[in-house]
């Protein structure tokens, strides 16, 4: 594991994390296949029993007070290798719950650590999903999901585990009901040989999916350095995650 500013180790048998002496974090929560079946194209599919492990609020001890003051939280997720029937291993599609302290559905900044990911996102979870993007990212690359968008993180290489870190709002919460009511997000990723192909979800109006690669986000002051290290270097840098209202003009017509 490359050092991304945190002394921690990712394990895959079993799924989970171990923390160094100067790092604290919770026992990982394990998401099982039975728990995420309602979000899958084929809820009766076979796949790994433990689909992914998630630990929210991982931090260096010396950073905790600053993170709490800024209402920021760092999470780490690792996925099992394999597939969920004909779908890749993936998170449940969701929208972030509105935070009381900001009045906004918070954005989220991902950084891929191991494997390859597709960060899928759509503007709305409604009849018309608006613009839909699938961002293919590899180790060290970052992807920013804007406020209020439905999204999911998908393993783009089923033969290997996927691990990523993410900056989130400390009052994070996941809303699943709207996505589950439509049997998922607007596009289903499917494994076809060594590739991911996409199938439209008929519970949404027909639309277009844009396949893109990550870009830099200079308008938010993000650099190529590891994202946790960027916080260490400048604790104010990711204030736009917990206070997206302070950069409201940058979210208008945002392009991932």
Automatic annotation (TrEMBL):
Q: What keywords tag this UniProt record?
A: Gluconeogenesis, Glycolysis, Isomerase
| A Gene Ontology molecular function term of the record | isomerase activity
The cross-references to SUPFAM superfamilies, in alphabetical order and at most eight, read:
RmlC-like cupins
Q: Superkingdom, according to UniProt?
A: Bacteria
Q: Where in this chain does the record put each Glucose-6-phosphate isomerase prokaryote domain?
A: 51-204
Q: Which EC class is the enzyme in? A: isomerase
Q: In which pathway does it act?
A: Carbohydrate degradation; glycolysis; D-glyceraldehyde 3-phosphate and glycerone phosphate from D-glucose: step 2/4
Q: Which reaction does it catalyse?
A: alpha-D-glucose 6-phosphate = beta-D-fructose 6-phosphate
What EC identifiers does the entry list?
5.3.1.9
Family membership noted in the UniProt record: Belongs to the archaeal-type GPI family.
- Name the UniProt record assigns to this protein: glucose-6-phosphate isomerase
Task: Identify the species of origin.
Answer: Enterobacter wuhouensis
């Amino acid at each position: 594991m490359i050092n991304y500013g945190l002394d921690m180790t990712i394990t895959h048998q079993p799924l989970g994390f171990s923390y160094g002496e100067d790092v604290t974090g919770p026992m990982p929560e394990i998401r099982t296949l039975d728990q995420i079946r309602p979000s899958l194209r084929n809820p009766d599919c076979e796949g790994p029993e433990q689909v992914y492990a998630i630990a929210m609020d991982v931090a260096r001890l010396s950073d905790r007070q600053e993170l709490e003051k800024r209402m920021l939280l760092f999470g780490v997720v690792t996925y099992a290798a394999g597939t969920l029937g004909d779908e890749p291993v993936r998170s449940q599609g969701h929208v972030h719950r509105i935070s009381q302290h900001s009045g906004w559905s918070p954005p989220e900044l991902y950084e891929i650590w191991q494997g390859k990911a597709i960060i899928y996102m759509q503007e709305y979870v409604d009849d018309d999903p608006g613009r839909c993007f699938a961002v293919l990212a590899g180790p060290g690359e970052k992807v920013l999901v804007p406020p209020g968008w439905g999204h999911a993180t998908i393993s783009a290489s089923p033969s290997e585990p996927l691990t990523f870190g993410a900056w989130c709002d400390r009052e994070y919460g996941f809303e699943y009901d709207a996505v589950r009511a439509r049997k998922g997000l607007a596009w289903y990723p499917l494994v076809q040989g060594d590739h991911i192909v996409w199938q439209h979800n008929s519970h949404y109006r027909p639309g277009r999916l844009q396949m893109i690669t990550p870009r830099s986000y200079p308008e938010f002051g993000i650099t190529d350095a590891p994202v946790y290290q960027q916080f260490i270097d400048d604790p104010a840098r990711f204030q736009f995650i917990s206070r997206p209202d302070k950069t409201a003009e940058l979210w208008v017509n945002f392009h991932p």
